Task: structure prediction
Amino acid sequence: MNFLHSRGDSLRLSSLVSVALGLMIVLGGVPAVFAQDATPEPAGIDETAPAPPSIGTDIPATYFGPPPSEVQKELVGPVELLRAGEIDMEAGTVTLPLYRGQMADGAPVWYVLTDTTDEANAEALGLNHSAKLAYAEVGRASRNASLGKDGSLTFENGTVDFSPEHTLVPGDAPNFFPPKTAKAGSVGDADYTPIIKIVNAGGHIYNAPVVAFDVDASQIDSCGGTPDYGLVADRVLEICFEGDTGMPDTAAAGPPTRDPTIAGGTVKLQMTPVFSFGRPAAYISTEASDEMVAALDKGTFTPALADVPVGGDDGAFSAIERLFPIANGPTGADNPQRQGLNSALSDKGPDGKPLPPLQLIGGVPTIALDYSPLWDLNLAVWTEDAISKGYRSRMIDEFQFLAMVDQGWITGKDGGPFGSTGIVVNCPIIARFL
Result:
């Protein structure tokens, strides 16, 4: 697979993104999220996609020039942030290189790379640079890995069990959140964390979420088909290896052909749309320190991430940014103000699949200096007074949101003080649309 590294490729991507977004707006799109089939529907991206600049003007969209981000990436997007992967904006997916490492006993470890403290290598590999990850080396929050002569990593400890069945049962109306039952489809042991330190190659820290463990390539190859979610992460849509044709062998019926000597490949993952400082963006949620949150995000329950210090966003030695999920935002699949966990647990798209919660997050690369893929979950609840006065609406900007908190219209759980819940979520940013 050819990944997007050259300027020419980036220009083509921007053009395709613009066309895709325009078509989605014109045609209405088919919102969906957390799809688990080989041909996913758009992941609610149409709810956050910016409208074309031609609306209300006397000239067609074809007369407009390229987005400013093609001249300077910090300006109005779209901007592909995790450049290691190939983004399908219409389907709401990202396809990343799939790396194979191993444990000391030789058990295979299949993972992706999304972020690093090594700024030069972030540029070279198309990863997100996050200086704040250096401060995640606390307790069990990070683990060690060693680089071998063959270029693979050997992990010191940490395993993941992908066999549990993902279960999510909403609460009773009108309070669908919290859910009655929430079981994650994958669980890390006490030592597992996606945050790794390569101890013999500069000591840099990487975000390396594991998507399959202790299985061979032939067991997880799902190119052109449906993954076995007893073996891979629930957010995986497809895994392909070098030599896959994506079509059955013409000589004999069976799975796609593959060169069994090739270890590397690609993994397609479902993205989730979010907002950051008024700009629509997308991330992938891969781990959470709380099982209910992991179940809501179809991520891996990772207790070790609870060792990441929270409550100190933007302070010295902070490893986190803040995530602001809203428990009781506006609901209704056709409501343009729809947002929050009640909505995500009750509202469905035309295909019957759950709609995304449209979370609000802190800074992302190119618009903030303090990006981290580790998010400190700050649960928000609209007060009954705010709801009765008609103040409840979709929040898309951190300053807008915090002003509502400051004025008392939004509180923490059960009317308590707003702030950290102590839950840490690993959500690497993929792209921003503006």
Summary: The mean pLDDT is 87.
